[in-house]
Structure formats: C-alpha cells, structure tokens
TrEMBL record:
Region described as Disordered: 274-296
Keyword Transmembrane: no
Pfam families: adh_short (PF00106)
Keyword terms, alphabetized: Oxidoreductase
Name of the molecule in the record: Short-chain dehydrogenase
InterPro entries: NAD(P)-bd_dom_sf (IPR036291), SDR_fam (IPR002347), Sec_Metab_Biosynth_Oxidored (IPR052228)
MF (Gene Ontology): oxidoreductase activity
Lineage start: Bacteria, Bacillati, Actinomycetota, Actinomycetes, Streptosporangiales
Amino acid sequence: MRTIVITGGTDGIGRALALRRLRGGDRVVALGSGPVKGERFLEEARRLGAGDRAVFRRADLASAAVSRAVAAELAQAYPVVDALVLGAYRHHPDRVETAEGFERTFALYVLSRHLLAEGLRGSLERADSPVVLSLCGVGTRAGRIDWDDLQQARGSYRSLRATMQGARANDLLGVSFAERHAGGRTRYVLYNPGFVATGMAEPLRQPARGLVRAMARLFARSADETARQVAEVLDHPPAAPLSGFFRGGPVDLGRPGFDREAAARLHGALQDMLGETVRSDRPGGGGAGRREDRTD
Ligand SMILES: NC(=O)c1ccc[n+]([C@@H]2O[C@H](COP(=O)([O-])OP(=O)(O)OC[C@H]3O[C@@H](n4cnc5c(N)ncnc54)[C@H](OP(=O)(O)O)[C@@H]3O)[C@@H](O)[C@H]2O)c1
C-alpha cells in the first residue's frame, strides 16, 4: 500500500486526487486548514470503504512553525512516503501577515512547500519511486520575483502579483530541490493543471469572482479529469530529477525562469527568513498590512 500526502487534499484538485488514490488502494493523508472540509473528506472515504486508509490532519500551513511540525510528525508516523502532493493554496485579496510576520500568500505558497518537501524527504527517499508533485503555475511566463521585496511589504499590495511571484518561486523551489539533492531518488514534478473548475475563485472580490465562475463553466476542466492526469504522473514519475507539465504535456525547463543561480538565491532568502526571529527590519518582511494574531 502506497502512502500519499496531499496538502490541500480536502478540496478541489487535491480532494479529487485523494479520493482517486483511495479508490486505487493507497493510504492518503490529506492536509487542510478547515475541519468541515476535513470531515467531509473522511466521510467520503468511509463511503468508499476506505475509512481505515484515510487520514485528515488539520493544519494552517501558512504558519512556518506548523508546516515544520506537521512535516516532522508525518515523517515519524510514516517512515515511507511514496508521494507528496503540494496543492494547498488560497488567494488573499488583501495583504495579511501571519503571526510569524510573513505575508500570507508567500508563507503558504512558497515557505510551506519548501518546509514540507524538505521535512518529508527522508520518508520519500525510502519509497520505491518517490515523487514530490507541486501543483503550480509552471509553463506560464507571467510573474516575476521581486528580490528586494519578496513579501510586498513596501508600496501597495497586489494579490495577483503575489500569486504570480509565488508561481515563479515554485518553479525555483523545484530547481533548488533537484540541485541540492542531486543523487537522491526523489523526483520533483512541477505540474500546472491549467484552468480547473474548483472553489479557488471564491476568495476573489466581485466582479472578478463572478467572471471567473462564468469562465469556469465554459472553459475549465473538471477536478476529476485533472486528478486522473496527475495520478498518471504519480504512477509513472519521469526519470529526470526535475520535470514540468502543463495539462499533462511536457514543459521546457531550459528557459531562464529555471535558472540555478536564481534558485540558489531564493533558497538563501528562505533560509534567512526561516532562521531569523520575527523582526520588523527583516529583509523582505514586515511592513504594511493586517497582522494575524494566531496561526494554528
Ligand atoms: N484551479 C485552477 O484553475 C488552478 C490552476 C493552476 C494551478 N492550480 C493549483 O492547484 C492547486 C490546487 O488548486 P485548487 O483549485 O484545487 O484549490 P482549492 O479548490 O481552492 O483547494 C485548496 C485547498 O487548499 C487548502 N488550503 C487553503 N489554505 C490552506 C492553509 N492555510 N493551510 C492548509 N490548507 C489550506 C484548502 O482547504 P481549507 O480551505 O480547509 O484550508 C483546500 O483543501 C493550487 O496550488 C493551485 O495554485 C489551480
């Protein structure tokens, strides 16, 4: 029985994939921040007769401390993990700082993915054909990394810019993982599912939310169909240490966006952020925006 850990496994693409893998006989550990979606996932698992192979772990992965702790806890509970699917994501229309002082989109989309992939690497390395699969924006050129202000602490916050920067950073997380763990067995797959009909647009403000919903009815693929394609990659991970897919087709990773120096630079910046105590003068951190007082 394979063990698949899916962040964001309680909704959208992650949930469709989780249920698909349960139907296929795997054990699935789904992570999400909300108990209602988690309970619904467990209920669906029981209906499939897979209740004993379904685990829900509630965790707000926008917290670096929680991401680190959950990775350690799962590594202890599951000495062998066959696949880690990184799918947790939420659009934040306003700039919100976590209690740790990180901008929330960056914390969830970038820091948490880094921490989970690193924290579960030991368990992944023990599997027959281990893979980290990041659901992301690979294959599009939009977005850039603002090296001087990674967390949009200066000037006005733009949610789309934060998301697209996260997408480019996710590309670099893959490059960095493959570089730093060259010789390891774990493959890293960047997977852009294209436009998929999920609840992802719900946090958007009107009229954007209505527009995306209408477009989804016309143009988006279903989460089930996407999960089928993603599952194929999990079942047959490419041999290359790093690979990219857009809607199931290969993405050329020879482009400038996958630059090793940029990946090393991002890794250094993440190390910096994660290694420091919360200070208002931290590079790229602190600044304007709403601050949360709890992150668990
Ligand atoms: N849908 C698309 O068109 C599309 C296109 C390109 C890429 N993608 C990528 O595919 C992935 C999945 O997207 P989706 O459309 O399936 O999203 P979705 O339907 O909105 O589901 C998001 C999942 O993430 C979880 N989540 C959100 N915030 C979290 C937090 N702080 N901590 C832990 N879990 C959290 C949610 O559970 P809770 O709400 O309970 O926390 C939910 O399970 C994302 O990475 C997205 O960037 C999607």
